[in-house]
Structures are given as C-alpha cells and as structure tokens.
Amino acid sequence: MIIKLFPYPTLRQISTPVNFFMPPAGYNDWSQFEKDYIHLMIRGRGIGLAANQIGITQRFFSIGHESFDEFKKPAILYNAKVTKASDELEIDEEGCLSFPGVVYNVYRSKEVEVEWQNMKGDTLGAKLSGLEARCFQHELDHLNGITFDLKAEENNL
Ligand SMILES: [Zn+2]
Description:
Elements: H1 30-43, E1 48-50, E2 60-63, E3 75-85, E4 89-94, E5 104-109, E6 111-117, E7 123-129, H2 130-143, H3 153-156
Antiparallel strand pairs: 1-2, 2-3, 3-6, 4-5, 6-7
Zinc ion binds at residues 96-98, 138, 142, 148.
C-alpha cells in the first residue's frame, strides 16, 4: 500500500459505497487492512487519508489527531457524509499527502454534523468543529474526486 501522488487518476474519480463483504486486494478481513492503512497515514504525518489516495475508489477515509475531540485515536470512517454544515465558513491552510509540500488556503464550513459507518456496519454520528471539521470535509471531497487545489482560495475569487 502506497500513497499515490497527484495526478494519479483515482484522485479525480468518484468513489462508490463500501462493500464490507469484499476486503481490499491482499486482505482477508478489514481489521488488518485498517491497521496497515492507519499506520500509513501516521507514517506520512497525515491527519486524514482517503481511499482513492491509495488507488481504491471506495467510500472510506481515515481521520485522527491527538488534538481532535472525536477522533483523538485514528479511525477509518466508511460511507461517511455531512448531514448538516454551518453557513459560517472559515479559511485556513491545508496540506494533502498526495501533494507533498503544497499548501492552499481553503474555505470550509466551521462546524459539520456527520455520519459514518464502522467496519461492522454500525452507523455513528458526531458534531465536528475547527481543524477536525476541516479535515473531515477535505477527506470527503477526495471521495467525490475533488482535490483541494480545486477549492483553493484563488480559484474562488
Ligand atoms: Zn488530501
């Protein structure tokens, strides 16, 4: 498993819902895959990693950082979505593991209410704010083929 760099084709593809009955190639179950995947994100010093960044076009991503409220411990979120987004936006710098050394200023909703599934298929929810909300929105965009360069401030002016 390696992180694909832009312009790797899956980075601009729209991902499809996760099939829990079919673990990724080379794995018999999702739990070992989760360990390796989260390790890859941490080794890259990332706070999020979307499946299409490793070439898999299924709807999941990892998220986690010790400064976060909900995801202090990194987790993989399957079939995640935003159910409510604040009208209030916030601009801040973002990086991306598929764009080494590149930083863009991106507007994001300050707060988002979100839902996702864990690998058992249970539906969970949370309300996120600040960097954690930003990270969730960045990763969800990946699953829709939207990389952060497309949302950079200069493109919106
Ligand atoms: Zn990214």
